[in-house]
């Protein structure tokens, strides 16, 4: 099985991706290659950030790798927090700080529709590919559920009465932004090898 590094320091994402892709390639973590720094993330789009992260690891170690970047876009806030989802409540903030800020900003919002979008950049044999996935839903008024991470407790996907944080991980993975992007990546890798 081919080794591919997943350029993330997020252990939640690593677990999710291994569940989805573990049968096709061996997903190697940054920790396993001895990298324990923050990867610079200075782009203004999800695509730029995903590529920047994958490129950084590829340049440093010369290995096949992929990286993802995700943003939560709300219609009431004209797409915010979007590409700035990770640091929405400021440098060093927690997931809870971000959720609280979002709920505060949207306290009077009537339109509560939102979507998660993921872009994956893959660098394989020196070539680059992109894969995208998104999921529509709404931002509920109070956090519900304890699973998942990030904005999961306030994001309820369309057609479900549970938030991502209230669902079994397999269900979230089967309908999520990252799940869909990884599905495209998986199909591509199956064809490629
Ligand atoms: P990243 O830049 O791709 O790491 O994602 C930016 C931020 O979006 C993260 O810090 C999380 O707060 C949030 N995020 C990413 N993926 C998810 C998810 O699957 N559920 C909830 N929040 C997420």
Write the layout of secondary structure elements.
Layout: E1 3-6, H1 11-21, E2 26-28, H2 46-61, E3 65-74, E4 81-82, H3 95-105, E5 113-124, E6 127-139, E7 155-157, H4 169-175, H5 177-192
Parallel strand pairs: 1-2, 1-3
Antiparallel strand pairs: 3-4, 3-5, 5-6, 6-7
The protein binds inosinic acid.
Inosinic acid binds at residues 10, 68-70, 72, 85-86, 95, 98, 148-152, 164, 176, 178.
Name its key features.
alpha/beta; binds inosinic acid; globular; 193 residues; single chain; 24% strand; Maf protein; seven-stranded mixed β-sheet
Structural overview:
The chain is of the alpha/beta class and 193 residues long. It has a single domain (3-192), classed as Maf protein. The chain is 32% helix and 24% strand. The chain contains five helices and seven strands; from the N terminus they run βαβαββαβββαα. Strands 1, 2, 3, 4, 5, 6 and 7 form a seven-stranded mixed β-sheet that branches. The longest helix has 16 residues, at 46-61. The mean pLDDT is 95. Bound molecules: inosinic acid. Inosinic acid is lined by residues 10, 68-70, 72, 85-86, 95, 98, 148-152, 164, 176, 178. Residues 10, 68-70, 72, 85-86, 95, 98, 148-152, 164, 176, 178 line the site of inosinic acid.
């Amino acid at each position: 099985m081919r080794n591919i590094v997943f350029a993330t320091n997020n252990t939640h994402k690593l677990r999710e991706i291994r569940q989805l892709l573990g049968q096709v390639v061996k997903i190697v973590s940054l920790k396993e290659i001895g990298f324990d720094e923050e990867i610079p993330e200075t782009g203004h789009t999800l695509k730029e950030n995903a590529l920047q992260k994958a490129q950084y690891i590829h340049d440093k170690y010369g290995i096949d790798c992929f990286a993802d970047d995700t943003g939560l876009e709300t219609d009431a806030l004209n797409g915010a927090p979007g590409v700035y989802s990770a640091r929405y409540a400021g440098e060093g903030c927690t997931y809870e700080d971000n959720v609280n800020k979002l709920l505060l900003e949207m306290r009077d919002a009537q339109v509560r529709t939102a979507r998660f979008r993921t872009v994956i950049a893959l660098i394989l044999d020196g070539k680059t590919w992109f894969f995208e996935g998104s999921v529509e839903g709404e931002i509920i008024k109070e956090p519900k559920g304890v699973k998942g991470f990030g904005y999961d407790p306030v994001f309820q996907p369309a057609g479900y009465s549970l938030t991502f944080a209230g669902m079994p991980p397999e269900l979230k993975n089967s309908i999520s932004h990252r799940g869909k992007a990884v599905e495209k990546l998986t199909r591509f890798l199956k064809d490629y090898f």
